[in-house]
Amino acid sequence: VGYGGLKHLKFSKMPELVGIWNRNPQEIVDFKNLEFLEVCNYSSNMKSIFNLSMASSLAQLQQLEIKRCNNLKAVVMEEEATTTTDDKVIIFPLLKSMIIEDCPNLTSFYRGISSPSLIQFPSLTKFEVSHCPNMTAFVSAFSRDKLAIIDDGTESANGDIHILTPFFCHKALNLG
To answer: What's the whole-model pTM score?
Structure first.
């Protein structure tokens, strides 16, 4: 099924939803032109938004909003059947805004057996995370307590900053 022209997609108030995309979604659906995705699930049993294959195919995504996903553990989760040991690279080249709020069980952006070697958000200018008390790591090697928090153009470092990966343009960052 091709949805090549679809640019805006919103999932809202779907309490029975357990997943959006499962294993190798490129064979089933094509969202190569998707620019905006919003997921507001409330009490859904969904554990992740994307699997690794789907995340890698969202080259046109510009805005991602994830709200009130009570059981969400990670935004991107590695497929159970991944057998390749090649270095994984996840690039969101056009993503400008990422908002994650009210996801009490979210522990990280990426979760998997092996961490991807590189996650890039070269266009990201707005990153907001609020009311996600269990989010302790972005990726296993990228800890929230090692971030520099940018507030009104002033930088205050919370611990050492070890960013080995291009993450985003430091214009707005709100962790609450």
So the answer is: 0.72
| Model confidence pLDDT, tens digit, residues 83-120 | 454 566 778 899 999 999 999 999 988 887 665 556 78
Cα angle 37-81-141, degrees, rounded to a multiple of 5: 65
| Residue 70 to residue 54: CA distance in whole angstroms | 22
List the one residue out of 175, 69, 172, 164 whose CA is nearest residue 119.
164
The model's pLDDT over 68-80, given as tens digits with 9 standing for 90+, comes to: 998 999 998 876 6
Q: What's the Rg (C-alpha) of the chain?
A: 16
- Count CB-CB contacts under 10 A for residue 25: 16
Q: Report the Cα 53 to chain-centroid distance in Å.
A: 13
CA dihedral over 103, 47, 161, 89, signed as positive or negative: negative
Nearest to 60 by CA among 89, 39, 31: 31
Does residue 146 sit in helix, strand or coil?
A: helix
- Which residues are CB-contacts of 37 (< 8 A; sequence separation ≥ 6)? 9, 10, 49, 58, 61, 63, 64, 65
Residues 13-37: tens digit of each pLDDT: 877 777 666 555 455 566 789 999 9
